[in-house]
Amino acid sequence: MSKPRLHFDVLNSADGSLKLNIVLENSTDTELKDFVLCFDMPRFIDKQTVFNGHVTSQVGSHIEMAPPVNTAIGKGERWQTTIESQTCGLFNLSERPNHPYLRLGETIVDVNMGTHKMSQPEDLDLRVLTLPAASSGVIPQPQSIEATEGEFRLASQLTFKAELTETSNAIDWLSNQFPEVTFVKTEGDATLSLLKVSAEHIKPEGYELTIGGESIQIKAATSAGFFYGAVTLAQLLVTGQGVVTSATIIDAPQYHHRGQFLDCARSFHGIDTVKSVIDQMAWLKLNTFHWHLTDDEAWRIEIDAFPELTELGAWRGEGELQPSQFGSGSKRYGGFFTKQQIKEVVEYAKAREITVIPEIDIPGHARALIMALPNLLREADDKSEYVSIQQYQDNVLNPGLPGTYQVLETILDEVCELFPSQVIHLGGDEVPKHVWEKSPACIAKAQAMGLDDVRLLEGHLISHLEQYLAQKGRNISVWEEASHGNKITKNATVCAWSNGAEGQKAAQAGYPVIMCPAQATYLDMAWNKDINETGVLWAGAIDLKTAYDFEPGSIENSEQVIGTQALVWTEFVKDRAKLEYLLYPRLFAVAEVAWTASENKSWQRFLPRVAAQLEYLDKRNINYRHMSS
Ligand code: ACM
Question: Could you name the domain of life of the organism this protein comes from (predicted)?
């Protein structure tokens, strides 16, 4: 049976305004009447401006609309309505009205997407980046490479000598990269020798790799150093088709924090995708996996004390705790990580010299948590009116309620049992204006604490949890907003995300800073402004050169910068192919920015190595954005 169709037409799109015609075409054989049209679009609809219909509800990106009463749409007829938003324009099709359906009483009727009218931007730049011929080489570029006489050829058997536990990650990983080669441990002369040297001679995470015609030596002081020596060797062998020019490579990273962030809350990316991401991180010497496990749209981490969090909070759709978001649709959508899976991920990462930092995002971005535990986390008399940047009106934890502290402490107890990382990320971003202003509990708590503004309770809550975690020997990491007001201690790390100036501010205040401005490191941004390009554009387009040119240390107080990271938020990234499309090749650039000293970076010398790495991605069946499109 044919389905109704939804067409849309962008009438006006600018920085702070959007006007759309929405047309429902009845392509079915029966009359449509008494229905609600549901679709997702991440813009707050101004209810007063709706023409020929009305918005019956909006939760986040999920919008429900009805035509004027008694409207009946006969076969082949259309209902057209106009909506407006002051949030932001619509700049490409990633954020278009998505996954529409009709609710007719108890019945759900799927709606197909029809046509759209949307113009390309006037400043569209579709320049194609032509890559030079591939040449063997390493990403990220090592500190120094001195070529010597001869070449090494990989044979079907490789003898190795490695006596210490610090070498086991390197050897295990290396032998897994070359399943066609038999690795044989020996006490005598070996083709590959791993030698421990004192930390005085080699920097932490550093290594010295000497490749001769017959033998190879890796010297390092730490397990990570051996591992990175092995990664460089593997990259040279793979990109050189098993043949490597003899050389001495001395290397160490510019920054200790070289991260990748993955949002598993907005869209659920399961354990296989997470492990694949970790594999690629290891290949690029990235060492910190920032795992975003909770947000408004879902709670993804099993917590024994509160089974509701994953039984209810991990799911969206009709009849679920939360409605569809970002085009997830009417059917039940979601998933979560069991404790067993989390332990598996932590171990998998550890074997690749990667630390997993979990993020429990509070006090904003907490709708799934609040909805799952309303008795503990909601205050019926809180009449505060606010709209978060993602269009939620009920997504902020209430720091006036004892339940908030009890729930968060209990959750953090279990989080600390699962994650051995020194650092736990507590979010702290994007708490909307006007929260708590009409909350009797917050007003009373602020008064009792002598605070003249309920808003100061935000700093109080994060600082309370920082102290709670400090008793367990842990530090916190937060998004930049949580450092405003200097409530948290200087043991906290600040992730500066909205722009470089925020990093400068946090560095000046004395915080260790991870520079991850959206304009250079948010790889969920589209490559260019083509309306058909995957990705969002709120921080601008990021092409390979933009990602490569970023300098995390180009601020005052740059000694406070501990590193950088690539981020992918997944509102519109539903599957692995799309995730990989956004990551590659731009992750190569971020990895080089994080590892390689600025004076060693060279765009011209980077490109042939990118070409070689793309061949490797092909072999591994990893998707990437082709340059020619
Ligand atoms: C963020 O992008 N809200 C950290």
Answer: Bacteria
Percent of residues, the chain, with pLDDT higher than 90: 95
pTM of the complete model: 0.97
Residue pair 398/374 in contact by the 8 Å Cβ criterion: no
Catalytic residue among 151, 311, 430, 437: 430
CA 552 to chain centre: 18
* Contact call for residues 121 and 529 (beta carbons, < 8 A): yes
**pLDDT tens for each residue of 315-327:** 999 999 999 999 9
DSSP assignments along 277-326, one per residue: HHHHHHHTT--EEEEE-EETTEE-B--TT-THHHHTTTEESTTSSB---T
Distance 557 CA to ligand 1 centre (A): 23
Quick check: bond before 97 cis, omega within 30?
A: no
Output the DSSP codes for 176-206.
Answer: HH-TTSEEEE-SSS-SEEEEE--TTTS-TT-
Give the strand pairing for 157-161 and 182-185: parallel
Give dist(CA 135, CA 311) in Å, integer.
51
Q: Which helix or strand (DSSP H or E) is residue 445 part of?
A: helix 440-448
- CB-defined site of ligand 1, < 6 Å: 429-430, 479, 497
Q: Is 430 a catalytic residue?
A: yes
128-147 as b/e: b if 16+ CB within 10 A: eeebeebebbbbbbbbebee
Tokens of 174: 């290396």
- By most ligand atoms within 8 Å of CB, the mutation choice from 360, 389, 426, 429 for ligand 1 is 429
Which residues 6+ apart lie within 8 Å of 343 measured at CB? Answer: 418
Q: At what angle do helices 603-619 and 223-239 cross, to 10 degrees?
A: 80
Residue 547 amino acid letter: A
- Please report the pLDDT score of residue 628 as a whole number: 63
- The tokens describing 337, both together, are 């990580």
**Phi, psi for residue 458 in degrees, rounded to 5:** -60, -50
Over residues 288-301, the pLDDT tens digits come to 999 999 999 999 99
At 137 the pLDDT is 87
Å from CA of 429 to ligand 1 middle:
6
With a CB cutoff of 8 Å and minimum separation 6, the contacts of 106 are none
Which ligand 1 atom sits closest to the C-alpha of 427? 4
Tell me how far apart the alpha carbons of residues 455 and 458 are, in angstroms, rounded to a whole number: 6
End-to-end alpha carbon distance in the chain: 36
